[in-house]
Specification:
By secondary structure, the chain is an alpha/beta fold. It has eleven helices and ten strands. The strands form two sheets. Strands 1, 2, 3, 4, 7, 8, 9 and 10 form an eight-stranded mixed beta sheet that branches. It has a two-stranded parallel ribbon with strand order 5-6. Strand 5, helix 6 and strand 6 form a beta-alpha-beta unit. Helix 1 crosses helix 9 and helix 4 runs parallel beside helix 11. The protein is globular.
Length: 333
């Protein structure tokens, strides 16, 4: 069964469970309490408008409103690498009315790359996956390579005269590049961090560095315009929107499945019946045909699944990226 088919099967099963949960005893409010939700819900996004995390919130906004029967308001609180938005939700009342749209950077990478952090994102309560995206490793057209093996040989021959860009120090694009570098024999490269994917892409196209990876939806326009060369994708199978780009495994890079994910989270102490209802709403929104098409057209995968599955992904990536951060002494402060 393909990666896409497995995701679809998981989403259908989770939607069935979530919908059943709406009518279960767990969803019944205590005597004297109004059922949740009975007023607008705020989705806190720890990044400015325009990025992938903001897109996830906005593409599911209407679907969540329809599923929950209440307005859903988006509150962009960018700052400190996503930590400001995360802290806002960690300190919020656990009543289901302030939720976080969060990604791997502030939740599972920053705790390792920012030793002075005073918050623990792992205390958040997972609700459900909103979308996932494979990364695409790209080369500047000036690099005389079309495969990973050719790039590795070329990079080793440059003896340190190779630069790679990232959205920021400690970002997923940074730690993924370091993991990739170790997988291809550790050629010496210099990291060039930026303040976001947008500025990095502009310099990448201009030839100020030779290689970078980012979410498929971020790099897609530049691949299509032939301003960048696609080297490989980090999904288990090829991305349907980019069927000509081989996977890391097909290129001989073992154990290199890397997914950028965005999920919905609640403050610690949020009642299980609210988490269950919110999870069902996420699954319902992700199953909507128009929403799915909007997500897939960008090269992303619609989310879905159970809260427990999102929690497992969070714990797995927290351990994995912690090892990479420590091995490469990565600091984002």
């Amino acid at each position: 069964m393909s990666f896409t088919s497995r995701l679809a099967l998981t989403r259908r099963a989770a939607l069935a469970l979530g919908t059943a949960g709406l009518a279960s005893p767990l969803a019944t409010p205590a005597l004297g309490q109004a059922p949740w939700p009975n007023r607008p819900i705020t989705l806190v996004v720890g990044f400015p408008p325009g990025g992938q995390t903001d897109f996830a919130a906005r593409v599911l906004q209407n679907g969540l409103q329809q599923a929950l029967g209440q307005p859903v308001v988006i509150d962009n609180r960018g700052g400190a690498g996503g930590n400001l938005g995360t802290e806002t939700v960690l300190r919020a009342k656990p009543d289901g009315y302030t939720l976080l749209v969060g990604n791997a950077n502030p939740l599972v990478i920053n705790p390792h790359s920012m030793p002075s952090m005073k918050i623990n994102p792992m205390e958040l309560v997972p609700i459900g996956m909103m979308l996932q995206s494979g990364l695409i490793f790209c080369l500047h057209p000036s690099v005389p390579a079309t495969t990973v093996a050719e790039f590795a040989a070329w990079a080793k021959g440059k003896k340190g005269d190779v630069d790679y860009g990232s959205a920021s120090s400690g970002s997923l694009s940074h730690v993924a590049m370091e993991l990739f570098r170790s997988r291809i024999g550790g050629p010496e490269m210099t990291h060039v961090p930026y303040r976001g994917s947008g500025p990095a892409m502009q310099d990448f196209i201009a030839g100020r560095f030779q290689i970078m990876c980012d979410a498929a939806s971020v790099v897609a326009p530049f691949i299509e315009a032939k301003q960048l060369k696609a080297l490989m994708v980090t999904t288990p199978e090829r991305i349907p929107a980019f069927k000509d780009i081989p996977t890391a495994a097909e290129q001989g890079v073992a154990d290199f499945v890397v997914l950028a994910w965005i999920g919905l989270f609640a403050p610690k102490g949020t009642p299980p019946e609210i988490v269950q209802r919110a999870n069902a709403a996420v699954n319902q929104a992700c199953a909507d045909a128009a929403i799915r098409q909007n997500i897939v057209s960008r090269g992303d995968e619609p989310g879905g699944g159970t809260a427990e599955q999102l929690g497992e992904i969070m714990r797995r990536d927290h351990a994995r990226w912690g090892e990479v951060v420590r091995a490469n002494n990565i600091r984002a402060e």
